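Hello again, I could really use a second opinion on something today. I owe you a coffee for this, so here goes:
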Amino acid sequence: MIAYIDGKLTYKDPTYVIIDVNGIGYQIKISLGTYSALPDGERCRLHTFLHIKEDAHTLYGFMTAAEKETFLHLISISGVGPNTGLMILSSLSVEEVQQAIVREDVRTIQHVKGIGAKTAQRIILELKDKMKKEVLLSDAGVSAPGVAYNTNRSEALSALVTLGFAKNVAEKTLDSIIKREGRELSVEEMIKLALKSS
């Protein structure tokens, strides 16, 4: 719902910040990684995720889109709530989380406070394939077209899911379109072809 917040950093704590946007102060929970990357008292922009529960609306903020993406992957796992996701990203960097999952390194994930063996195993089991794709793309130092392709694919995927496609169906459809048509497709082209093929 709220994709990012851009304003003046008026208060900074290792667990949360307050950003003033036109006289409204947004309190946003952050990881230690974001805390150390934030400038003091300057204008800043955080990628955000709004978590809504019956008794609270909580904003979570991230310095980079990659950190937000990793957080969203983590909280998609049963038993990993937003606070646990933030705890993982405060204990490990995005790269460390990805590498631990790809290498099936249960111990590294288990070292995070509040994560037991079963939860660590579930995180690895459910995220291994997703993380392998992401790590392969970043390790390969993918050239600009590759990065654009990856972003376009994820944007198209997100749009298709919003349009009511099941995520796994949308992923298979996009992958077969990309295989057939090549990687230089725009987001719009991917979506149109996917809609036609469904």
Remarks:
- The chain is about 55% helix and 20% strand.
- The two ends are 28 Å apart (CA to CA).
